[in-house]
Amino acid sequence: MISQLNHLVLFSPVFERTTLVQNPSSVSRKFQCFCSSRLTHHSKVSVIESAQSPNSPFANRVSRNARTEAQATLFDYLHCTRSFSFTDAEHISKNSPIFLQNLLSNIDTEKDVARSLTRFLRYNPINEFEPFFESLGLSPSELLSFLPRHLMYLSDDCVLTDNVHALYDYGIPRSNIGKMYKEAKEIFGYDYGVLALKLQAYENLGISKATVIKLVSYCPLLLVGGVNSDFVKVHEKLKRLGLGMDWIGGYASGNSTYNWDRMFDTMDFLDKVGYTEEQMCALFELNPALLLEGSGKNVYVLFGRLLKLGLEMNEVYSLFMQNPQVLSVKCMKNLLLAVDFLFEIGMGTEEMADIVANDMEFLSSSRFKRPKTVCKDLKVKRDGLLQMMKEDPHKVLTLASKSKGKNQLISPLPSKHLEKTSFLVRLGYIENSDEMMKALKKFRGRGDQLQERFDCLVQAGLDCNVVSNIIKQAPHVLNQSKEVIEMKISCLTTCLRYPLDSVVAFPAYLCYDMDRINLRFSMYAWLREKGAAKPMLSLSTLLACSDARFVKYYVDVHPEGPAMWESFKMQKS
Question: Domain limits at 328?
C-alpha cells in the first residue's frame, strides 16, 4: 500500500464523490389472483406513459380529500379485488403518489372519486408492477428499465415477491428495497428461502441483526453469491482491534458507498506504516469518518501529501491524534486547499511542513480565498504576499480566511451545553460539525438527562449501537422522561408481548403519546384473543393509521368491536 503513495499528485487533492442514496409486519408470501396476467395488451394506467406529475397543474387541482379517497379506493381494489395482503395493499396505496395521480387523471375529481375510480378500475386493468416498484422507492423515471415485459400482475412473478417479502420480513424497510433492486437485481431471483439463509450467514459471523439490516440495505451486493470475503476480512480485523462490525453499523449511512476491499487495505496500510492496534482503534473511535467516508481512500491522499511535505511518520501520527477532526471530509478538504494556497504563493515544502505542523487545527477548520484575491485585498503582489507569509504566517492566513468569525477560538460554553455536546460526541456526532449544531437544537435537557434516557433503552435490552441508530432516526425519543420511556417499553412487552427489538423497525413508536398507545394496543390485544386479528401486526400498522382507518379495520371487524372500543376509550378518559 505504501507504494501507492508514489502515485498521488502532490498538489491536487482527490475526493471520492459518493452517490446519495436514499419499517414492518409479516406479510403473505404469495399473492392470489382471480385471473392470469399473461396479457399482450397494455394497462390503461401507466406512470411511464402519463405526463402527469404532482407538480403539474392537474395535480394542484386535486384536493387532499380526493387523494385520500383515491388511496382508500386503490387499497380496497388491491386488497379486496386483487387479494393482496392487508399490509401490501396499504403500503402500495400510500406510497405510490405519482401512480395514484395518473390514476386520478382518468376520472372527474370533482365528482364522487371513490365511486368513479372503483368503476374505472373495474374495466381498466393496471400494471401492478408500477405502483409496487414506486412504493419500494424507485422513481417513475427509473421504472421503465425495470418493468417486466408481458406481465401486469404481481402474482405472475412469485419469485420477485417472495424475495421482497423475505427482505421485508427480516426487517429491511420497504423504502430501501427499491435501491437494493437497482443495485443488485439478481438477489430478487433467488429460490424461496435462499435469501433468508444468506442473511442468516452474516448473523452467524457474530454480527447483530440490526447491523446486518443496515449493511445489506446500503450494500446489497453483499447478498450476491456467498458471504463477501472482503467484508469478512474487514470484520475480523475490526474484531482484533476491539471494535467489530457492529461499530461500523452504528455509523453506517445510506449517503455513502462502501468498498470493503479498500477499507481492509486502509487498515493494512496503517498497520504497515507503524500504527499499533491500540493506536488504530483509538484513531477509528475518535473519527469513524476515516473508514466510512470514502472507505478509507482519503487516508492515502492525506498521508501522501503530508509525507511529501517532509513530515516524519511519527509527526503525522501525533498530528492526527491531536486533531482527529482533520480526517473528516470537510476538514481534510480545507487542509489540502490550504496546502495548495501555500504552494501557489511559492512557499517551499519545508516551510509548508512547519506551518501545517504548527497550525493544523486552524488550517483544517478554515476555508481560504485564492492567492489572487488575497493579493488584491492586501494590495501587494505575489512576492510581497510570500514575504508576509514568511514573517507572520498566521496573520496572513487569518486575513486569507473566508470565514473570520469561525476561525477564532470558541469561548468556553456553559456547562449544560458542554454536557450535551459530550453526549452527542459519544453518540457519533463530530464536534462543531453542522450535524452537531442541528442535533443540539433537537435534543432537550441536560447532557446527563439525555444519557440517562439513552441508558434506559440500553438497560431494557437493546444494543448500544441499535439505540444510537434509533436516536438518530427519531431524536425526539430522548425528549421524554426516563419514566415515560420505561412505560412505553413495558406496554410493548407486557400488553402486546412483543419483543423489545420491534422498536428497531419503527423507532417512532417511542414518540407516540401513551393514550394512543394504550387505547390501540388494548383493542388489538382483545381482537387477538377473539381470533379476529393476526398475531404480530407491525407497530406502524397499529399506530400510524388514522382513527377512522383503525376503526374500520380493527374495530368494526368484530360484532362486539365497537362496544369494546367505546369501553376502552372510557377507561382511558
Answer: 236-400
